[in-house]
Amino acid sequence: MSRFLRYLLILLVLTVASSAIALGRWQLRRLTDRKAANLVALAAQALPPDTLGAGVDSARTVIGRSVVAKGVFDTTRQILLRGRVQDEAPGLEVVTPLTVIPGGSVLWVVRGFIRSPDAATPPAIITAPDSGVVEVSGLAIEALSTPDSGKPLVRGTGTTWSRLDAGAMRQLDPRSLPFALQLAGDSTGPGRLVTVPVPKLTNGPHLSYAIQWFGIALAVVVFGVIFLRRSGPGFVEPPGAP
Q1: Is 150 helix (H, G, I), strand (E, B) or coil?
Q2: Of 71, 59, 75, 145, nearest in space to 105 by CA
Q3: How far apart are CA 118 and CA 40, in angstroms?
Q4: Alpha helices in the chain (DSSP H)
Q5: Before 242, cis peptide (omega within 30)?
Q6: pLDDT tens, 84-125?
Q7: How high is the pLDDT of residue 241?
């Protein structure tokens, strides 16, 4: 192997290895940030519940915290989230607006899970919650506004969404609060629907990704050393070189 090719191979090995190490360190930084965010979330959830309708309706104040609200459900305009799976069964999540008392603002409540063979077609009948004033409690979750408004899909006489979208919520009711409520507690929610579990806080895959990147860096270095040794201990000059 010529001197130029050996230098080129060394440069390539160092570049790839250093890039892999940098990506591994980036994943470790993301892991640190994730752990810190989880600690903040756990601390927020441990705080006493906020009561909606009593001047505590700001998304910045309540997202990530336990909240309690009283009001009346309106099942005439629900949001059905498609593509969900629970207990290995496909289906949809039912999100129903609750008119908060007092105040009259609208809180969208993830009321429960219903089965659907294709996780997209709503059943003919969705069990309604009890009429009159009810009290609900759970975790305030963020609802973002996306350019596609949550990807609404009309199938038959029903509409489903891919995700809970703040814009879609406001379109259905301008009084909608900029967050939703993920029920907590019993295994069945209002209307005897199966409660959707609150997502568990995890550290994510960042540590395994970091190990993979460091492994790639090590493998590249080992490969480069082996290849250089097998190509000869010294530099081979071209024939006729002075």
Answers
A1: coil
A2: 71
A3: 37
A4: 3-46, 59-62, 166-172, 206-230
A5: no
A6: 998 889 999 999 999 988 878 899 999 889 898 888 888 888
A7: 47
